[in-house]
Amino acid sequence: MTIPKLALTFEEAAEACGYSVRTLKYQVAAGNLMARYANSKGVIRVEDLARWLDELPAEPKAGHRAVSTLENEEKGVTTHDTPGRDFSSTELVPKLFRTPEEVAPELGLSKSAVRDYARVSGIHTRVGNRIKLHQGDIDKLVIWIREHQAKEDRWWEEPEKDPFA
Prior knowledge:
The chain is α+β, with helices and mostly antiparallel strands and 165 residues long. The protein is built from seven helices and seven strands; from the N terminus they run βααββααββααββα.
């Protein structure tokens, strides 16, 4: 006869729910999840973990898309509903976001240069912790790079004098 566990260590709870130990500890610190401590070892009651999972929102926060959409984009294909059709049907659409590595050859730059320019300029979209670029980002980035290089080419010119100084 196996006795069911009443509480799980942070590692067991992370494995059971699919979140990282770090996320669980952050939620405990934020007061969203209750942990119990015997000496310095923390455990989470199974009921508390289930209640916390039940209280999570069913949709991602504003500005974020559902994970299923992001996974399809990583594969190079995204699905969308087409007006006038049954909403349960989907249609294949070309990849919206590309990595700096995929964009670099068409810009004639190295992969690391594109990634660095995207970081410095702030012209990119974050998908998780990865830098991604859509066509609008690429167009803006090309303009930014040209302006940035033009400024570097004129380094010897004196700055304009402030008439109010």
